[in-house]
Amino acid sequence: MEKRLTLLAAALLLTLTVFGQAEKAKYYIEGQLATPTKSGQEWKLYNVRSQGITFTDSDTIYGHDTDKGVQLVFDHAATTHPQGFNCGLKFYRWQNNSGRWQVDSEVENAQAAFSQQKVMSIMLVLDCSSSIGDADFIKLKQAAKQFIDVIIEKSSDGNVHIGIVGFNSMRNTRTFDLKPLTKNSRKDMFQFIDTLQLNNRTAFYYAIDKGLDNIKNYVKDLKVDKDKKYDGNFIIAFTDGYDNDSFDPKIGKAAEGTEHRYFQHVNQRIMKEKIGGAPIESYVLAIRGNDVDRNNTEFERVLSSLSHNASGNKFYSLQNFDKLQSAFEEIGTNLINKWQSIYCYIPRGYDGRVRWTIECGDVARKFFMGVTGSVGTLTYRTKYPNHPGGFIAAAGLDMTFPITDLISVGGYVELNASSGIGFAFTPTVAFSFPNNSAIMLGLGYRGADGFFSNGFLMRAAYKLTNPWYFTATYSIGRGNTFMLGAGYTIFGRKIN
Question: What whole-number distance in Å separates Cα of residue 471 and Cα of residue 114?
Fold first, then answer.
């Protein structure tokens, strides 16, 4: 009877955990699903809202039938979750009878993927003025290459097009025309970056202008497949000083400040011009070179005014070149996030509220089970002829059930053998960490040596971020035992 009650309580705790997961989710997408009532109509998700996840603003998302169920796509998706979309999103249905969310384990987890239906152009604009210095110029080249690697990791099929402008004076400005980013073109881009050389002057506005012209001329002849969409133009520009060399007879000469015509010309192109039907977004990175006063606030005001993108101004004012690579990586990641699409699936014929949640890192919110093996010694303070002590081995089972974000409760059961068969039981409290590691502590009872040695048991275990964990136990009684062991996680081994 007691065994049945224990199993019933365990099942109840696990059920409450499944229901409570979606209720307390910090990262989710939710909406009301309407199934089509007539042939030819689309599935529709309306009253869409989210928390911790952003995507293309839309109150209604339309779905279509696939072999995995009804597919809904949330475009330009990004999340503030530390692990992103790496573990997918679980699907929950709203149960009117219980007034709770219930997970549907038969529906495939929603996944975010780099959208291969979008075509984009990126122009890197790199300052090669002498004020940078040879050592820092190497860091700039490495940062630009790292940016390309961040992008190619997600897309090497040619949908992303990258060009490069290396500039100092107008005369020495060099351009690598836009090319589809592939493994082969990556080598050409790296080779071009390696050949860039330092020289005097800074024609920053001219270089941006030239980069925009390059995109415009390239895109007008670009053929985009019917199932794809031209989706964006991006300028990623770096400089360490004021423009002091840009000149155009129709525009005039560049000068410090935002009032001058060359600045206004470039700024207006970025803000208002569309290429291929898509807007221009710009990111500007700046380091104060030797020719810029450290207290010159005008420098940042001018350059930040050239930074425009969908998420607001994105201007990077960096203290030194050691920060440059991480800034380029961040921009690359931001661009990749713009291209993420979340592919969600819903069973056919369902109407009502639905929710997808990110549950990465919610380690304590998962049932945990692990098997262990341990060895040690059994010693007696008083000698017993029929119970000499000695070697002891054991096999055990750990189980815990979550009650908060950080704490789980459960127990440890063990079968051991020395001169005779014994048994141990330890109630356990587990303290979990976001990286999927945990500490388990327990106090209980161990009977060993045919239960001749009964003792008060203390147990500790440390779970690694991988499936393995290590244990130490010590019991005090007629006989004392000390054992060390290792365990392997059966359930709750991954953050997904």
Answer: 42
Q: Is 336 helix (H, G, I), strand (E, B) or coil?
A: helix
pLDDT digits (tens, 9 = 90+) for 38-50: 877 788 999 999 9
Domain boundaries of the chain, sorted by first residue: 21-109+341-357, 118-318, 363-491
| Percent helix / strand / coil, the chain, rounded to 5 | 25, 45, 35
Q: Which residues pair with 454 in a beta bridge?
A: 447
User: Is 443:420 a contact under the CB 8 Å cutoff?
Assistant: no
| Statement: 363-491 belongs to CATH 1.20.120 | no
Task: Name every residue whose Cβ is closer than 8 Å to that of residue 460 and which is 6 or more positions away in sequence.
Answer: 439, 440, 441, 442, 471, 472, 473
Return phi, psi of residue 473, to 5°.
-130, 150
Q: 118-318 is classed in which CATH architecture?
A: 3-Layer(aba) Sandwich (3.40)
Interstrand relation of 453-463 and 438-448 (parallel, antiparallel or unpaired): antiparallel
What secondary structure does DSSP assign to 120-148, as a single string?
EEEEEEEE-BGGG-HHHHHHHHHHHHHHH
Least-confidence region, from 13-27, 66-80, 281-295:
13-27
Q: What is the pLDDT of residues 197-229, one digit of tens each?
A: 999 999 999 999 999 999 999 999 998 877 677
Taken in order 225, 230, 231, 236, is the CA torsion positive or negative?
A: positive
Coil, strand, or helix at residue 225?
coil
Same fold, 118-318 and 363-491: no
